[in-house]
Amino acid sequence: MSRDFLLVLGGGVVSLVTTLIVLFITDWVYRRDALRRLTGNQPGVAQQQSGEKEAST
Fold first, then answer.
1. Residue 19 and residue 51: Cα distance in Å, rounded?
2. How many CA atoms, within 13 angstroms, populate the side-chain half-sphere of residue 34?
3. Taking CA 33 as the corner, what is the angle to CA 28 and CA 37, rounded to the nearest 5 degrees?
4. Residue 36, C-beta contacts closer than 8 angstroms, at least 6 positions apart
5. pTM, 2 dp
6. What does the alpha-carbon distance between residue 39 and residue 45 come to, in Å, rounded to a whole number?
7. CA 2 to CA 7: how far, in whole Å?
8. Across the chain, what does the average pLDDT equal?
9. For residues 36 and 42, is the Cβ–Cβ distance under 8 A?
């Protein structure tokens, strides 16, 4: 095999792996956020509400 072919093949493999990693991370974030919405578990909102309670006392 020629050197150019190996470079092009290697670049294609790197591109494919990078794309798959980005897709898996995006899917994980989407599923995590959807699960939080379904369960009502939003830690940012809870922290903000507790901060408001402390400020009012």
1. 40
2. 6
3. 150
4. 42
5. 0.60
6. 13
7. 9
8. 85
9. yes
